[in-house]
Amino acid sequence: MDYKAIAQQAAQEVLSYYQDTTGWNVVKTSKKITVSSKASRKFHGNLYRAEGVIPESTAKLSDFLFQTENRVTWDKSLKVYHEVHKIDSDTFLCHTITTSFAMGSISPRDFVDLVYIKHYEGNMNIISSVSVDFPEYPPSSNYIRGYNHPSGFVCSPLKENPAHSKLVMFVQTEMRGKLSLSIIEKTMPSNLVSFILNAKDGIKAHKTPSGHRSHHRYSLLQKK
User: Fold this and answer.
1) Predicted confidence (pLDDT) per residue in 37-69, tens digit
2) START domain location, by residue (predicted)?
3) SS3 state at 103
4) Which residue, 97, 102, 161, 185, is the most exposed by fewest CB within 10 angstroms?
């Protein structure tokens, strides 16, 4: 399987969602975060778009969202997030297990995703993810195996304050199992707002001395 080609295609699709300004319906606004949706072309469900501002540079925000080591410390929707196969410095396979949500009506899911960071002109970065088959992590009876159609983050400098970043998040997740679409539609917008708020809190904690980490990848991002 040509994982790199799949990753590049997913990044291109996320870019196309970002550039598409038509047909979005605002489904939630909260704490300066806007969530919109439209019917997905990939499955019988929705493509969601969540937008917010993060008080951090684009390079550092992209690195923070891309790295696996501390994701579960701030992303409250996940209980497992770890790299299972490295392809190159910008591409890896990740196994994820979610927490239950919607007051337990949606049980934990697991995913195997191909994650890729791509750098564009204007200091814009896209972190894409798409579910793939990986023989070392087949579906198990412990969790329903979900499927992420091309999803990801677009990080770019805020025009009025380049020291801050505009974060646009795209999600089109096929939960599978016996779930009604209405349950997902009711819970997903709030979950996306919570994710951006948690990311804000997480990157703030990451900047404190107790949350200090190596800046190795930061320097790599800045050199590219």
Assistant:
1) 999 999 999 999 999 999 999 999 999 999 888
2) 20-208
3) coil
4) 161
